[in-house]
Amino acid sequence: MAAAKKRKTPEARIYDTFIVGAGISGLCAAIKMKKEGYHDFKIIEKATRVGGTWRENTYPGCGCDVPSSLYSFSFALSSKWSHLFARQPEILSYLEEVSEDFGINELIEFGTELEHAEWDESRHLWVLDTNKGQTLARTVVFATGPITEAQIPSLPGLDSFKGEMFHSAKWNHDYDLTGKRVAVIGTGASAIQFVPQIQPKVKELHVFQRTAPWVLPKPDMDLGDTSKQLINKLPIIQKSWRKAVATSLNVINFGLRNPAALKPVSTAAKQLLRVQVKDKTLRKAVTPDFTLGCKRILFANNYYPALQADNANLIPHGLVEVEGNTVIAANGERHEVDVIIWGTGFEVSHPPIGRKVIDANGDRLSDLWKDTSPEAYLGATMKDVPNAFLVLGPNVLVYDSFIGLAEAQLDYIIDGLKKVKQKGITRFAIKPPVLKAHNDKVQKHLKTTVFNSGGCKSYYLDQNGRNFAAWPWSLKELKRRLSDFNVGDYEVVYQSAEKKKAA
Ligand SMILES: Cc1cc2nc3c(=O)[nH]c(=O)nc-3n(C[C@H](O)[C@H](O)[C@H](O)COP(=O)(O)OP(=O)(O)OC[C@H]3O[C@@H](n4cnc5c(N)ncnc54)[C@H](O)[C@@H]3O)c2cc1C
């Protein structure tokens, strides 16, 4: 049992709902609640700006791998995108504009971090401690993000490194890479975006690759002023494009659930590699040895050319040790470098919000998740965590825009909030048998998907090899399941029963 934090004098003000985080999910929650006529909510954000992921990740080349027509809110399509796939600064501006246009900015309490959230069983309230004081709320929406915690491996000798060192998610823009000897660790989604940007300016670029990713050509395009004006005048273009992108992602998703269907794509991708990478040794080193789709498919046109530049050196092994300023690969290859850039991704199987939340039994979620990853019902509600929702929680990941997933989940959450209010429910918690049956089915169906059977170790799998991230069916099915908050799935306490008990 976690030691309960000493409570301060409670604020008189009790909110209906408390939203934590003002990234895409938190903004979407606030917009949808406002639209439904809910005004009794508070939204906090620990940073001083909205944007979440797109505020934090500013590395060179950072951008979206889903076309912007789809990576945008369904209720706020934009005609301003400069490319088919938007870059980070544009996505951040878009989110700031949406927040302003929908009147959310003024509702956000910036610079406010949730430090401790504890369920008070006697009052059916959440007691929420922030760096600015205490708030009480009947319900909470944790929109604190699925991919936030930069992961840096602890390696022997790392302490002895005297050069510069930073993670892609905390890019040091004050450090000039010009003429420097650079080690990039990792070849995931962020690395393949920043490697081509830094390669032309550095003296030496050593890229440590543990697993060769599938990198397909990115069908990107500059959208000039004429296209933007046309899209602005004829929004139907944007809508049709959005539909077309969604349809093609559905096809990819079908392949991920039925790996044999993606065989022609991987054959074509390997043929393309022959054209793109002339050197046979390098080509062999960058050819993936797992089924396409097992790890997130990456898209780039400039990654392989960057690796073939004279100053670039792909090391098809992980970094295992550091000795002073010398980085040492698993095959013993050694290089003296001035800077290490970690493109090692994020710790996603244990969301940091777990360290702040105490459930109805007095247990800290991170303690419960110590030996496993979290489970939730439809990625949203957790066992013994009453009156609370997660956005983009476990097992809702579909190869699509996260914005679409967040919107679908928030439709479920807001339907739930509405029903709870209408029915006078003061406490609701997912029924353990419902949660178990759901997750057993999810895990059973994941077995045949490429994520579990494709022969890779991806971030979808936790330390025990359990897939905590993916949804095994179609996006349509996820949306169908999220279209109705079935009160029957929850153990509930009604206000009338409470009153009777008190009398
Ligand atoms: C580099 C990178 C590239 C990506 N590219 C894509 C892509 O191409 N396509 C795609 O679909 N998805 C992509 N994603 C996934 C991306 O995370 C989601 O698309 C989306 O931005 C998630 O939004 P969110 O609001 O749920 O979380 P976040 O954007 O992480 O926002 C969470 C917010 O909560 C705040 N917060 C957290 N804890 C607290 C606390 N205790 N108190 C107060 N505030 C708190 C944070 O400061 C943050 O602002 C990418 C992720 C990364 C890291």
UniProtKB/TrEMBL annotation:
What the entry lists under SUPFAM superfamilies is as follows: FAD/NAD(P)-binding domain (SSF51905)
The record's listing under PANTHER family reads: FAD_NAD(P)-BINDING DOMAIN-CONTAINING PROTEIN-RELATED, L-ORNITHINE N(5)-MONOOXYGENASE-RELATED
Pfam families assigned to the protein according to its UniProt record, in alphabetical order: Pyr_redox_3
GO MF, one annotated term: monooxygenase activity
Keywords in alphabetical order: Monooxygenase, Oxidoreductase
InterPro entries, A to Z: FAD-bind_Monooxygenase_sf (IPR051209), FAD/NAD-bd_sf (IPR036188)
Lineage here is: Bacteria, Pseudomonadati, Pseudomonadota, Gammaproteobacteria, Oceanospirillales
Name-wise, this protein is: Monooxygenase flavin-binding family protein
